[in-house]
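Example 3.2
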Amino acid sequence: MKLLLYPGMVALLLVTSVYSFAQNDKSKRPSPPATVSQKVGETTVTINYSRPSVKGRTIGTDLEPIPGKVWRAGANEATVFELDKDMMVEGKVLPKGKYGFFILMEKGNWTIIFNKTWDQWGAFKYKEADDVLRVTVPDNKSDALSEMLTYKLSAEGDLDILWADRDIVVHLREKK
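Structure, written as tokens:
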């Protein structure tokens, strides 16, 4: 009886460990992870986010961001924005550090939020009291559809958030 039980237990253990490993492979998610890192002057800016797809949906109705509701600026875990030196964001100082990066869409504008709680799933633990900086940028229509959420950061410090039919631009500059 022991001889029959042993191979069955080994097989079960192998199947369980392979399944468990596959669950930890974030690249296999429907919204895979991505990282953008760029030197802006002497400051290194790194953004870690997950890339959801539009899949025929419309921003503001059946696709985030929803007006008046804080969005994680990606999918899965909250988007993480990290600086190794203080930086100017839309003319305001953001101290060096690691931040949760959130967006609040309102009439014609997007509020970009840097929050001290960066290690969280989605925006479920988001608290406005933990905001370090908020800046407002205009809602810009894009000429081309971006099927997957894409962050682009230039050496000059222009952060483009390309999502569906939007191109949201946030200006980052070296603090002098």
